[in-house]
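Please review this one:
***
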Amino acid sequence: MQNAKKIIGAVFAPMMIGAYLGIAVYLLNIQVPSPINRALESLGGVTTPLAFLIIGARFVEVKKSDFTQAGIYCFSALKLLITPAIVYAVMNLLGIDAVIVQTTVLIAAMPLAASLVNFVQIHNGDAAYTSLCIALTHLFSLVSIPLVAVLLL
């Protein structure tokens, strides 16, 4: 019963309802009135800065000792290098078109999404540690994305 409540809560979360509405508008080819469209574009324009503001606010809770934990660096390597390599290998074994492989590998090589902090907060996780992981994967991706592109694509 507890799991069913969690699933229902996740399916009807505000972000999911917004996604459902967006998909419906797209699939039904509904013309959104210009003022609403402009408002949504403005809202979309502040999404990334606000997400990074939340990460920064949580980042102040990070302790210096957190930077010495090997797990963070192993996680970053797994996310940014090993996962794209696995995706590349599996997709090539399956004979998938090269353009689709390249696109999917680059997506797999991207750093953690900034919205992950919100998800962790909602589920009472360690938002400060998550912020550290997000910040480090973004920092390391400056090197890893070109590396993945050169080595795998």
About this structure: The first helix runs from residue 2 to 11. Residues 48-152 form one domain. The chain has seven helices and no strands. The helical segments are 2-11, 14-27, 34-59, 70-93, 98-108, 116-122, 127-152.
